[in-house]
């Protein structure tokens, strides 16, 4: 993308631009959130999940304005089909709750969901530059135009005089009244085509209304039909995933445990896997080093000693073997004294991420006093954004939906179940998650026995790699699985292009057909 730059008169002597408009990146999220809080002090700012969703659902559609290294403006868009764009709608339903989760790679219109600018820099025509970036994107993609709902901040002062929101928009259109936002948008070539009632109820100045605005691409020709869809750079590759159905056994030292883990990483790396997944709680075998029953009250303190060595081990293996490692899970005591069940995700670029289990099981609460986390975030990898759900979390459909709305296409589920019924709860729920979210779900579990370790004495697993149930995929929605209760590995090649095709034109289109006018997943905390 070519940055939109200010004229030479705004450049420093070495011709370095002071103000640029560029594509927003994940690293910009905290700065965008801070700017949002500054611009809208009476409204909760976008969460990091919202912004990740916007960027990961449509990478090319989000822009920031940067002045001398400081983010001073943000603009968010997504593609959408003509029918929903021109029908009556609310901001929440059209944007998928602010996550841009209704982005349609085949959509022939660009929807403008957000623009805000640092008040201290409004003299630099940053809003105009961001609108220009939108128009440029629309033309590069060969789309019909841009549509959105625009604020009417002067409405609350004049509603008694004009009588209705429709009359107010018409008066601004006739130039008998001036609105600071609508007048600006009209000067930038946007045409009011109606009014959207209850568009954003929290907008008190606009009384919840918005002007329904459209800009028609003058370079659009009907034979383009939007051109080829602008697929994500991740949608056309094949991702090879591997699962380790891991046998619990006594180990005599952390080094022995490390050798066992490295053996499997080495094996799957030889097959050029992009990901390897280990089971939930697979590190509990470290409690067998003492070769005696350790009271539950002491077990977590013992395991916490291995947290940093575990992260160092997995990170070293990820880099050395050029593979992304989903490191099962490891019970850990946090600095604040909470006991959490954490999955450490070590990527082959050397970065280490973590996902805390949200829903501890009754046994986890009873034996180890494990507490739940409060957020699920996608993790950006070289194969695209992924999500992790630790065992029981997969049985709560809100969590995977939240991850998929952020852009995740593969969900990894490390699990630990003691007998067949427990296993099938996880298996059936994960298959449902794959269908309802049109995504891949990858499960890895423990087998074998571990005497003298509370709550890990028996294991049952049949690890598997699940797909949606539709034409491009395996007949039963199972890309690969293992034999029950046998230590082994399994592989599958997951085609991201098949996933995109199913979401846009499958026999059923669960994501596209959601009733945003009736329901949505709303995260109550910062996650």
CATH level 1 class label of the largest domain: Alpha Beta
Number of spatially distinct domains: 2
Radius of gyration: 26 Å
CATH superfamily of the largest domain: Carbon-nitrogen hydrolase
Write down the oligomeric state: single chain
Number of helices: 15
Strand content: 15-25%
Q: Please give the largest β-sheet.
A: 8 strands, mixed
Helix percent reads 25-40%
Q: Distance between the terminal alpha carbons, to the nearest Å? A: 30 Å
Shape: elongated
Structural class: alpha/beta
Poorly predicted regions are 1-13, 224-233
Q: Round the mean pLDDT to the nearest integer and report it.
A: 90
User: Order of strands in the sheet with the most strands?
Assistant: 1-2-3-4-5-6-8-7
Blueprint (SSEs and pairs):
Blueprint: E1 4-5, E2 19-23, H1 29-39, H2 48-57, E3 62-67, E4 70-80, H3 82-86, H4 91-94, E5 109-117, H5 126-140, E6 145-150, H6 155-162, H7 165-173, H8 182-187, E7 191-196, E8 210-216, E9 238-248, H9 254-270, E10 275-278, H10 296-304, H11 307-320, E11 324-333, E12 339-346, E13 352-356, H12 362-368, E14 379-381, E15 384-388, H13 398-405, E16 410-414, H14 420-437, E17 440-444, E18 446-448, E19 464-466, E20 478-481, E21 488-495, H15 496-505
Parallel strand pairs: 5-6, 9-10, 9-18, 10-11, 15-16, 16-17
Antiparallel strand pairs: 1-2, 2-3, 3-4, 4-5, 6-8, 7-8, 9-21, 11-12, 12-13, 14-15, 17-19, 19-20
Helix pairs in contact: 6-7
């Amino acid at each position: 993308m070519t940055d939109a730059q200010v004229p030479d008169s705004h450049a420093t002597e070495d011709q370095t631009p002071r103000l640029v408009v560029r594509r927003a990146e994940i690293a910009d999220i905290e700065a965008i959130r801070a700017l949002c809080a500054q611009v809208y002090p009476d409204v909760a700012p976008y969460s990091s999940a919202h912004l990740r969703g916007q960027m990961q659902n449509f990478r090319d559609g989000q822009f920031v304005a940067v002045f001398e290294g400081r983010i001073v403006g943000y603009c968010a868009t997504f593609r959408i089909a003509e029918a929903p764009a021109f029908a009556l709608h609310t901001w929440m339903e059209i944007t998928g709750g602010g996550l841009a989760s209704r982005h349609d790679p085949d959509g022939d219109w660009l929807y403008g969901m957000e623009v805000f600018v640092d008040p201290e820099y409004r003299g630099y025509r940053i809003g105009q530059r961001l609108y220009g970036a939108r128009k440029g994107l629309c033309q590069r993609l060969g789309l019909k135009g841009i549509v959105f709902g625009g604020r009417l901040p002067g409405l609350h002062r004049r509603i008694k005089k004009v009588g209705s929101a429709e009359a107010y928009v018409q008066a601004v259109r006739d130039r008998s009244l001036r609105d600071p936002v609508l007048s600006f948008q009209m000067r930038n070539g946007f045409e009011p085509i109606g009014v959207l009632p209850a568009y954003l109820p929290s907008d008190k100045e606009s009384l919840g209304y918005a002007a329904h605005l459209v800009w028609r691409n003058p370079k659009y020709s009907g034979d383009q039909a939007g051109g080829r869809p602008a697929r994500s750079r991740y949608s056309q590759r094949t991702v090879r995933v591997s699962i380790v159905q891991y046998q619990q056994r006594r180990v005599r030292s952390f080094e022995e445990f490390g050798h066992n883990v490295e053996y499997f990483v080495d094996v799957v790396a030889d097959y050029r896997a992009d990901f390897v997944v280990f089971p939930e709680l697979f590190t509990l075998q470290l409690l067998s080093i003492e070769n005696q029953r350790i009271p539950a009250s002491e077990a977590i303190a013992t395991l916490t000693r291995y947290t940093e060595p575990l992260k160092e081990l997995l990170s070293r293996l990820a880099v050395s073997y050029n593979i992304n490692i989903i490191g099962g899970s490891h019970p850990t005591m946090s600095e604040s004294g909470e006991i959490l069940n954490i999955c450490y995700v070590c990527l082959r670029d050397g970065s280490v991420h973590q996902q805390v289990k949200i829903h501890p099981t009754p046994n986890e609460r009873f034996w180890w006093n494990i507490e739940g986390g409060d957020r699920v975030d996608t993790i950006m990898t070289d194969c695209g954004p992924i999500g992790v759900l630790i065992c029981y979390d997969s049985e709560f459909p809100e969590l995977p939906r939240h991850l998929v709305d952020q852009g995740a296409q593969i969900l990894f589920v490390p699990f630990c179940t003691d007998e067949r019924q427990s296993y099938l709860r996880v298996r059936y729920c994960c298959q449902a998650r794959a269908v309802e979210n049109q995504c891949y779900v990858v499960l890895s579990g423990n087998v074998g026995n571990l005497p003298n370790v509370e709550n890990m004495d028996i294991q049952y697993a049949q690890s598997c790699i699940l797909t949606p149930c539709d034409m491009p995929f395996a007949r039963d929605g199972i890309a690969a699985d293992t034999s029950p209760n046998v230590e082994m590995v399994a592989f599958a090649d997951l085609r991201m292009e098949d996933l995109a095709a199913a979401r846009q034109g499958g026999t059923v289109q669960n994501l596209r057909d959601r009733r945003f006018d009736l329901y949505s997943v709303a995260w109550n905390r910062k996650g």
